[in-house]
Amino acid sequence: MAIGLTVIVVVVVVLIVLAFLGMFIGIYNSLVRLRNDIKKSWANIDVLLKQRTDELPKLIASVKGYMKHEKGLLENITKARTQFMNAKTMSAKARADNVITGALKSLFAVAENYPNLKANENFMQLQGRISGLENELADRREFYNESVNNFNIKIQSFPDMIVARMMNAKEQEMFKVAEADKQDVKVEF
Fold it and tell me: How many CB atoms lie within 10 A of CB 130?
């Protein structure tokens, strides 16, 4: 009778250990998946930022002749593009992206003052292309922030936080909009 009870206790202990091991593996794998989702979503943003950055020289070339009085604005776009191209970290690229986004809003608003420019087919195509890229970027930023949010919730929740600490998982930063981008674009006539 004692041997039968010992076998039952051993079986129960083994089942409990297996349950905890299975739970640990499940949590670990879900954290890895979420971390990879963050990396993938940032890579998708990075591709679109690169495409937009590649379009900027063409846009500047198409507006240079028309916007002689807006030299500072065009220089700001060029400077922001250079910052983006030289950025090594995700946060540096995000800061450069915010500057480019603000400068492009200003450029497109100022373009309203130049009827010949608005009628220029190259400018209209580039404006449409960049506006399309901006919309895609907004979607990708939203997915990135959702991925970061899910990851941050997971590493702060019990019992996942135990596994997260073992993995040295750190809270990730969401993609934020610069304060300047929240302001209305000033158009002066």
Answer: 20
Question: For the segment 54-85, what is each residue's pLDDT rounded down to a tens digit?
Answer: 888 888 777 776 666 667 777 878 888 888 88
Residue 8 lies in a domain: no
Long-range contacts of 79-83 (CB under 8 A, 24+ apart): 81/53, 81/56, 81/57
Domain count, the chain: 1
Q: How far is CA 35 from the centre of its chain?
A: 14
- The tokens describing 65, both together, are 């002749």
pTM: 0.72
Q: Are 169 and 155 in contact (CB under 8 A)?
A: yes
Q: Collect all residues with Cβ–Cβ distance below 8 Å to 127 and sequence separation of at least 6.
A: 59, 108, 111
- What residues make up the domain containing 84? 32-182
Residue pointed to by tokens 């450069």: 96
